[in-house]
Amino acid sequence: MSSNEPRRTALDATHRALGATMTDFAGWDMPLRYGSEREEHVAVRTRAGLFDLSHMGEITVTGPQAAALLDFALVGNIGGVKPGRARYTMICREDGGILDDLIVYRLADTDAGSAHYMVVANASNAQVVLDALTARAAGFDAEVRDDRDAYALLAVQGPQSPGILKGLTDADLDGLKYYAGLPGTVAGVPALIARTGYTGEDGFELFVKPEHAVELWQALTRAGEGVGLVPCGLSCRDTLRLEAGMPLYGNELSTALTPFDAGLGRVVKFEKEGDFVGRAALAEAAERAASEPPRVLVGLVAEGRRVPRAGYPVVAGGEVIGEVTSGAPSPTLGKPIAMAYVDPAHAAEGTEGVGVDIRGSHEPYQVVALPFYRRQK
Amino acid sequence: MSNPQQLRYSKEHEWLSGAEDGVSTVGITEHAANALGDVVFVQLPEVGDAVTAGETCGELESTKSVSDLYSPVSGEITEVNEDVVNDPSLVNSAPFEGGWLFKVRITDEPADLLSADEYTAFAGA
User: Fold this and answer.
1) Rounded to an integer, what distance in angstroms lies between the CA atom of residue B44 and that of residue B81?
2) Using a CB-CB distance cutoff of 8 angstroms, which residues of chain B are in contact with residue A328?
3) CA A132, chain centre distance (Å)
4) pLDDT tens readout for residues A203-240
């Protein structure tokens, strides 16, 4: 297979049989949408959606010093994560630039004195993260293993997702909190069941062996039929996460920014023991952010109907005061929305006179706090 | 999907109806609408504007992208579809009917417009 050939998930034939429009995403041939992406978005907000996220990059870290390695390699306090819980964190370069944002799941200890973590990286960065973790593991009694091909990942997201899953598993879903995971069996298939997602809704991510992916997809489809579950592609995943104000690597996050520049300084835990990669640069970035505030990530809501796109300038009084990082028509708000980095002077909610330069025409936009959408609990 | 036999087609995926009193209706094909995804914003030329075959005369914006709208013929705009401006999803739901875009009094048309069968072969759909 040539290196230019797209990678296909275990569900490839299923997507094609459903008539999906496929797209290249980080070297993977993934479903963009099955029908209308807006209807898929609405289904997740109001009922449930089923996603194939098998392109995500799983890396297993085990060993007596697995926690110490992750505390050194990542900016978060991983040693403080209890078995069965998960943590949103980042991996940075020595200069503080963000290499990727990650979810780290701590699984049950494999044997006494040896912890077991699964690091989930973005598809586009999985190799970079794997290489960095492998290099940073030197001197630690821990093993870093590429498990990208060991898992398929299915997600069920939306208010109906607990009901759908309960019919297929004996696992204690009521006891499973947001950002927690437990091993179980779903529709007869062994799975790591995690209460995580990237949609702003309640939902579950199911890590299973690739050979079980089709069977699980079909079981979830049948279980969700009566409550309006639909297959969902990456297009609606992007508008769902945008409404929920969640950053996307490559848009809101990059190696040119530290977590403090992205308004996510809270993920950096200086108080943890020992050194970690990027500590000195990040301490400087934190001080800089306090004394000379960097551009602020804000939400923009259109007054008109033209859609802002990544890279479009944000303007005020004839000056460029920022740049759009993500933009889309919001199905929930019924208006175009965007995330943008803007100068602090224009970042306050309700700031007047802000617009986006949409191919030469300045369209008025309202500055709002993120997120655009928060689910009712 | 099938492309209506009575229409002619451009390689920019517009369709053109037969002229009535010299005026033809223009829209985009179902193939183009499917490729765009949900259309959320339509900018059309204004009545009285002169349009030129193969040149942009508006834009179509979908969730994922913005695309130029080309006129398949040269002429003068006599009517635009206000319904589609107010409800751009008509482009997806009825590209050959309620999702039409504008009417044009043709002054000149290129020689390379395609028949339905030719367009189907061209678009692979």
Assistant:
1) 8
2) 63-64
3) 19
4) 999 999 999 999 999 999 999 999 999 999 999 999 99
By the CB < 8 Å criterion, does A359 face chain B? yes
Whole-number Cα distances in Å, A2 to A6, A7, A72: 9, 10, 36
> Does the pLDDT at position A315 exceed 50?
yes
Beta bridge mates, A365: A302
Check residue A304 and give its pLDDT: 87
Question: Domain map of chain A by residue range?
Answer: 7-52+151-243, 295-377
Does the pLDDT of residue B123 top 60, yes or no? yes
Domains along the sequence of chain B with CATH:
8-109 (2.40.50.100)
- Say if the Cβ atoms of A306 and B38 lie within 8 Å: no
Residues in A touching B66 (Cβ below 8 Å): 307, 309, 359
Residue showing tokens 């409404």:
A243
For residues B63 and A33, give the distance between their C-alpha atoms in angstroms, rounded to a whole number.
11
B38/A328 touch (CB, cutoff 8 Å), yes or no = no
Name the residue type at position A158.
G
What would the mean pLDDT of A311-330 be, rounded to a whole number? 96
- Decide if A140 contacts A115 (C-beta within 8 A): no
CA A183 to chain centre: 21
Which among A235, A305, A359 is the nearest to B63, CB-wise?
Answer: A235
Model-level pTM?
0.92
Q: Which residue's structure tokens are 């900016």?
A: A75
Peptide bond just before A371 cis, omega within 30 deg: yes
Complex-level ipTM beyond the 0.85 threshold = no
Q: How far apart are CA A302 and CA A6, in angstroms?
A: 36
A42 touches chain B (CB under 8 A): no
Average pLDDT over residues A311-331: 96
| DSSP-derived secondary structure for A256-298 | TS-TTTTT-GGG--TTSSS--TTHHHHHHHHHHHHHS---EEE
In this structure, CATH architecture of domain A295-377: Beta Barrel (2.40)
For A278, half-sphere exposure in the C-beta direction (CA atoms, 13 angstrom radius) is: 30
By DSSP bridging, strand B8-9 and strand A361-368 are unpaired
- What CATH number does domain A7-52+151-243 carry, 3.40.630.30, 3.30.1360.120, 3.30.1440.10, 3.30.70.890? 3.30.1360.120
Q: Hey, which residues 93-122 in chain B have their CB within 8 Å of chain A?
A: none
- Please answer yes or no on whether B61 and A235 come within 8 Å at the CB atom: no
Residues of A whose CB is below 8 A from B32: none
Nearest beta carbon to residue B63 from set A239, A305, A359: A239
